[in-house]
Amino acid sequence: MKAAAEHANLLEVMAWIDERASGVTLPADERSLLAIGCLDVAIEHQAAIALLHSSELYGSELALLRVLAESLVRGLWLLQCADDGQLQKFKKGKLDKTFAELVAEIEISMGTPNGVLSAFKATAWTALNGFTHTGFHQVSRRHSPGRVEGNYSEDELAKALGVTGALGLIAGAQIVGMSDRNELVPAFFERMSAYAKNAP
Q: Which of the residues 6, 33, 61, 99 could staple to 161 if both were Cys, CB 3.0 to 4.6 A apart?
């Protein structure tokens, strides 16, 4: 089964990230602490999605994928793009930018406008909103003939698990890149490349 294989891949990549990112020394300036907090939450959401899949709680699994993506993007933006005023606003619970604006600013700062994050947003964002906010994407998958229960396809579960693995690898690479072990970053890029090739 495709989803079961992708779940096994996700568990393997989570262990791989943990082995390399655990115990690293990280900077403690304000910008870094805010960004690391977001990136660590992204990695926790990755683990939560794997656990929800194990428990066959597929609706919640898919609902959490948008939250994982937002955690990662906020962490990247805080680290690479936010000015000091925006950091202070974020600390007060204010972020006056849409997800699309955050993605665009990150990609401009990286020199990759209309890159991978933009493509992800263009292809997946509407569905992710539907799953997270109990829209039609979520509700329409709560029915089987004669029953009300989750009815999610193997393909969409496998894709969600694959995206979860990839986003967690990006978060892990950013954390390691900020640490005293930044020589590990190329290994993360190699793993991301291999993971992408095998994605459903």
A: 6
pLDDT digits over 73-98, tens only? 999 999 999 999 999 999 999 998 99
Neighbours of 124 (CB within 10 A): 17
Radius of gyration of the chain (CA): 17
* Residue 82, CA atoms < 13 Å, CB-side half-sphere: 24
**Pairing state between β 143-144 and 147-148:** antiparallel
Residues in CB range of 190: below 8 A, 6 or more apart: none
Q: Which range of residues forms the domain containing residue 182? A: 2-197
Residue 114's pLDDT is: 87
DSSP annotation of 180 reads: T
Q: What pTM was estimated for this model as a whole?
A: 0.93
Per-residue pLDDT at 193: 86
Domain count, the chain: 1
The model's pLDDT over 128-171, given as tens digits with 9 standing for 90+, comes to: 999 999 999 999 898 878 788 888 999 999 999 999 999 999 99
| Alpha carbon distance 128, 61 (integer Å) | 11
CB-CB neighbours of 44 under 10 Å: 14
Which residue type, as a one-letter code, is found at position 86?
Q
Q: What is the DSSP string of 85-147?
A: HHHHHHHTT-----HHHHHHHHHHHHT-TT-HHHHHHHHHHHHHHHHHTT-HHHHTTSEETTE
